[in-house]
Structure formats: C-alpha cells, structure tokens
Amino acid sequence: MQELNFDEIVERIVDNDPRYPREAYGLVREALDFTQQLVHKKSRGKVRHVTGQELLDGIREYVLQQFGPMSITVLEEWGIRNCSDIGEVVFKMVENRLLAKTEEDSRADFAKGYDFEEVFRKPYLPSSKLKANSPVRGLKPKPSEPKA
C-alpha cells in the first residue's frame, strides 16, 4: 500500500472535520519546525519532545513573525480563535499520525494558553488606544448628570 503524504492526510482530515482548513494544519506544522529549532538551541543540541506550552509559545512567535499586525485576522480566518483550537488541530494531526505525543500530552495542555487579543492584537494597537482602555489609578468616574 502506498504511503500518503502530509497534504493527502490533511485533505482527509478536513473532509471529515471541516472546522479548520488545510492552512491551519500547515501553520501548525511550520510552527512546530520553528519551535523545534528554538528548543534545540536552548537545550544545546539535545533532541527532545516539544511540550504543548512550548509549542504554543513557538506558534505565537512564528505567527507574529510571519503575519505581524494581521496575525489575529489570519488565525480567525483559519478558524483558530484561541489556544484550544490550536490543540484541536494538533491532536487531529496526532490521531492521523502526522505528529507524535507522549503519555503526558493532552488537549488540556492547550487550554492553559494565552489570550489571543493580548498577544496578537494588543502589541499593534496605538498607544492612545492602550491608554484609553486602561483604568487610571486614583480617578473615579464622573457621576452621571441628571437628564433634563
């Protein structure tokens, strides 16, 4: 029997579960390669498994490098609205033998991720928007004026 390649397996996944388009799977694959390179450098060349949290951190860095201010828009277009969505894509890939996992790995590892607004939108907001959205200490809101 002929072995299927990445694209063929992803097409089967998307046919069976259309929540995430094939681009989402490609992103995770590319971001995993990126993350493995980061982990490899940090561990002084030792090859080891990438944890869910490390993958989330790597995806954040990779996505920001690739898409900049468009990061959250691109992710939303691909159905990825939070870290749990990334976990779903990862585990679909695991279930279809595109990725491997350890006994300790679970979808719950991705639920403990970061807020997409904080990491993908907020860094690109103008400082005036950031100040307008943050409360100023010591100031109380003005009482509403009575309506005439």
Describe the structure in your own words.
There is one protein chain. The chain is an all-alpha fold and 148 residues long. The chain has one domain. It is built from 8 helices and no strands. It has helices spanning 6-16, 22-42, 52-67, 71-77, 83-95, 108-111, 116-121, 127-133. Residues 136-145 have low confidence and may be disordered.
Write the layout of secondary structure elements.
Elements: H1 6-16, H2 22-42, H3 52-67, H4 71-77, H5 83-95, H6 108-111, H7 116-121, H8 127-133
Short description:
The chain is mainly α and 148 residues long. It is 57% helix and 0% strand.
The separation of the N and C termini measures 82 Å
N-to-C order of helices and strands? HHHHHHHH
Q: How much is the average pLDDT?
A: 87
Task: Give the total of domains.
Answer: 1
Query: What is the helical fraction, as a range of percent?
Result: 55-70%
Estimate the strand proportion: under 5%
Please state the structural category: mainly alpha
**How would you sum up the major sheet?**
none
Number of E strands: 0
Cα Rg: 20 Å
Which spans of ≥5 residues are poorly predicted at pLDDT below 50? 136-145
Shape: globular
How large is the count of helical segments?
8
